[in-house]
């Protein structure tokens, strides 16, 4: 049936040459599982586009309604929570897929002549995807979104001369508010998709003009080619289906709670960025004072420029990684720094010793003394004293807490917190509990 | 394509492509993978699209006050606050209803809107009539039309008594029609 329809259309539209162009692309050295990452990235973009369109059915990009509309999607719409989960985990997966795609290209030296343009377009696509991530993060308009974006835009502001102007353009004025949300929404759902689709078309156009790079052997004449269909198509499809199942499982099993609605006056909130920005977030903690601009824009700009022009920096024509020690070394160093920072950051954020009995004891003392009468933790308790939800993050200093509990006014002049008669053991336990409070949710 | 089992086919370009049962295997695995992704996406996406079509406008019973304080046989206007949901928005509005306690103890509740063109009417205790100030429609204590242009009796609202409190489900009706049609 479908083949008769195809023949009918083919007689009129002459489809066979199109089919040959699309599917009979020769792959030097044959199909391989290592070549799937480009297709996976493309699939994830399609997934993001599809889920994004359906989220847009219910999302309202104004500070008055954004948060409520996202909560409406989460709680009222059938499968709404699942579609939002797919979009969230799809974004993370896309960063992973691009990372693996670039790693494969780097390892195989596939960016070398004549494929420099393809690499450069690819780097631009990567930057567009990161911009997608940054603009999408604000849209739920919860505390995390608001404060993470505040920090991101303020970092742009540290660039000399143009920084202040750029941050005003990004925010749409002086303050992060209605204009920021509506322009982030428009950029996320209209501008960036247009740019990304154009970039993908260019990336694929260049691929078809120069052809896939294939293995790194020098003896290219000896390579037997294989057509793209059916074996590479099959490999791509199998991995794409596997990736989809992983994303769907994550969306299904890990809920994505919203933090409280964005509150510009609550300056005690400490936001944590998405994991793919964490390495950078960690880096910023180590650079202070006059050196800060170095981390906020000099270094990122240098890294982006080096990535973009890498095919012209690494002019060694050899593709075999064993014979490219300098390139391989710098690649490894880059990965080591990024993953090292990511690891440290994750450890600081999540490696709370959950089994520490002192934390449980401290929690009991907190309840017994009625601390919740004034303090709030994760939405529970009074609001007359500071919110302690992330106190372990904002004040990781054990000595400070001990001193503070003995005599609050000694470290916090003007505080109306009473002194509590506690034993040293109790002080230590209560402090352990305070230090364990690190996560916003 | 009528290739039998044979070594991989080599077209003019000098590159190979699998044929025969291997080709069939790759084809079907590809189709299966596409089906998994397609169905896995179509169900939640279309589900979320059509979901609001199945959402019933939620009508809640609203407590409008104790039954004891209602005088039997004499209509009383009861004000209450009701919450109206519109997607992710919630608005509260003040509504009034007319309640008439019957001798047996159950309560008849009328929508406060005249069935003619939607004005608010009032009870005239001297004339023992509901009077609409706009166009002069009048109704008796059972809601039946006594005079004026009103096309139908006053609209009745679902009401029940629980634990001595009167609960009402507020509704709007189309005005100007012979029959009572809910909005």
TrEMBL record, chain A:
Domain Cytochrome b/b6 N-terminal region profile, chain residue ranges per copy: 5-216
Cytochrome c domain residues: 357-438
Pfam family, one: Cytochrom_C
Keyword Membrane tagged: yes
CC terms in the record's Gene Ontology section: membrane
Keywords annotated in UniProt: Electron transport, Heme, Iron, Membrane, Metal-binding, Oxidoreductase, Respiratory chain, Transmembrane, Transmembrane helix, Transport
Compartment(s) of residence: Membrane
GO MF annotation, one: oxidoreductase activity
Isomerase keyword on record: no
Membrane topology, from the record: Multi-pass membrane protein
Transmembrane region(s): 33-60, 89-110, 117-139, 145-163, 184-206, 233-256, 294-313, 325-346
A biological process term (GO) from this entry: respiratory electron transport chain
SUPFAM superfamilies on file: a domain/subunit of cytochrome bc1 complex (Ubiquinol-cytochrome c reductase) (SSF81648), Cytochrome c (SSF46626), Transmembrane di-heme cytochromes (SSF81342)
Residues annotated as domain Cytochrome b/b6 C-terminal region profile: 218-325
The EC number(s) this enzyme carries: 1.10.2.2
InterPro entries: Cyt_b/b6_C (IPR005798), Cyt_b/b6_C_sf (IPR036150), Cyt_b/b6_N (IPR005797), Cyt_c-like_dom (IPR009056), Cyt_c-like_dom_sf (IPR036909), Cytb/b6-like_sf (IPR027387), Cytochrome_b_N_euk/bac (IPR048259), Di-haem_cyt_TM (IPR016174)
Protein name: Quinol-cytochrome c reductase, fused cytochrome b/c subunit
Source species: Nitrospira defluvii
Lineage, highest ranks first: Bacteria, Pseudomonadati, Nitrospirota, Nitrospiria, Nitrospirales
Automatic annotation (TrEMBL), chain B:
Keywords associated with the record: 2Fe-2S, Disulfide bond, Iron, Iron-sulfur, Membrane, Metal-binding, Oxidoreductase, Transmembrane, Transmembrane helix
TM stretches of this protein: 25-50
GO molecular function terms listed in the Swiss-Prot or TrEMBL record: 2 iron, 2 sulfur cluster binding; metal ion binding; oxidoreductase activity
Cofactor(s) essential for the protein: [2Fe-2S] cluster
Residue ranges occupied by any Rieske domain in the UniProt entry: 61-168
InterPro entries, per the entry: Rieske_2Fe-2S, Rieske_2Fe-2S_sf, Rieske_Fe-S_prot, Rieske_Fe-S_prot_C, TAT_signal
Keyword Oxidoreductase attributed: yes
Gene3D superfamilies: Rieske [2Fe-2S] iron-sulphur domain (2.102.10.10)
Catalytic activity, EC: 1.10.2.2
KW Cell membrane (keyword) present: no
EC category: oxidoreductase
Gene Ontology cellular component list: membrane
Protein name: Putative Quinol-cytochrome c reductase, iron-sulfur subunit (Rieske iron-sulfur protein)
High-level lineage: Bacteria, Pseudomonadati, Nitrospirota, Nitrospiria, Nitrospirales
